[in-house]
Design brief:
The protein is mainly alpha-helical. It is built from 6 helices and no strands. 0% of the residues are buried.
Length: 120
């Protein structure tokens, strides 16, 4: 119950990548505790928060952070003019469409930026 209250009160969950096996005390301790947990006969902590709620909260937070970065970035302003809102349902998997939208492709202007040749 205490864990659930902490999760509900503190919605600032941050996920960070930590290089494994480099002597970071917290990382080493979590590895040890995880290993010890696998040897237990039964579960001693039960979290009654649905996985779907946690997943939804994480997705919402990530979208908000992505939107803030997208709005403040000086890059891709052409694409920002077309798509100002971040949306996971608008992922284009088409190679040529992505080249056109990002202006990174076999276009004279892009080739000029990379190779220093003037477009014909």
């Amino acid at each position: 119950m205490k864990l659930r209250k902490n999760l509900l009160i503190n919605l600032q969950i941050k996920l960070n990548w930590v290089r494994a096996h480099v002597g970071i005390y917290g990382n080493e301790l979590s590895d040890l505790l995880a290993k010890n947990a696998t040897t237990k006969e039964e579960v001693d902590i039960k979290v009654k928060i649905p996985k779907s709620w946690i997943k939804n909260q994480l997705k919402l937070t990530m979208l908000q952070e992505c939107q803030a970065r997208w709005m403040s970035s000086p890059n891709s302003r052409f694409l920002y003019g077309i798509f100002p809102e971040v949306n996971t349902k608008r992922c284009h998997g088409d190679f040529l469409i992505n080249q056109i939208l990002t202006t990174h492709g076999c276009f004279p202007v892009h080739q000029h930026r990379i190779f220093g040749k003037s477009p014909d």
